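Narrative of activities, Objective 1.

The group set out to show that a structural description can be obtained from nothing but a protein's sequence at a throughput compatible with the screening campaign. Below is one input-output pair from the validation batch, recorded exactly as produced.
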Amino acid sequence: MKLPQRSYYYKEKEKSSDNALESHIGDICLEFPGYGYRRVTKQLHREGWIVNHKKVYRIMREKGWTCRPRKKKWITTTNSNHDFKIHPNLVKDLAIRAINQVWVADITYIHILTCFVYLATILDAYSRKAIGYALSRHIDTNLTLNALRMAIDERQPNQGCIHHSDRGVQYASCEYVKELTFYGFQISMSRKGNPYDNAYAESFIKTLKSEEVHLWEYRTMADVQKRIPYFIEDVYNQKRLHSSLGYRPPCEFEAMITLTQNPCQSTLITSL
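Output recorded for this entry:
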């Protein structure tokens, strides 16, 4: 019996590499439960795996690892019914091209066993990095001031940085506006009832809820104080891939921008 020549070169496909890939995808999904197949694929590429998104999607679908949106009860955190000055929107159609050009601020709630805890955050709109945050049982100006002061201590921005928020009383209050004015911020506020005007902050909160808050059953304030800073600093800023940043984490993106703008610094680091 004469066999075709290709039969001599036939080799059964090895399953070990696919098993290793499946196992590693499972590890990524466990560490980042909110990742879809595109981010998982990008993470695999960063780690040296050669695989396309279709295969990753097939594996995740077969294993039941595709993330599903979870609907939660909406709790309002914005009280714009006040007599303080409403500032114009300075970021609408603005091209954001640098770190510390625009900061965005917002407040959200976190449910614990007996009540709500409130989180105020400030992000750099260019790098998406969370640069200031504060937790409290009270949704007041002190909450937002603590987040602002943390961000200022972290960044030391030049005068003229735009601080953008909603029209909530916590951001419009005399005490908060006085702090912004003292440090030379330009004050910007969203239009009434338009969440798209603060899309960067809204996106961060959506990520925080889907990839952290909804996955944990916080019982006490101590639980929140332990988990939220860890997620913000170690996961969101340091590890989580952002599609808008070319699938890089914010800290890596900022480091890349700094080296691009100051190439001599890269040479200095190499020489050391």
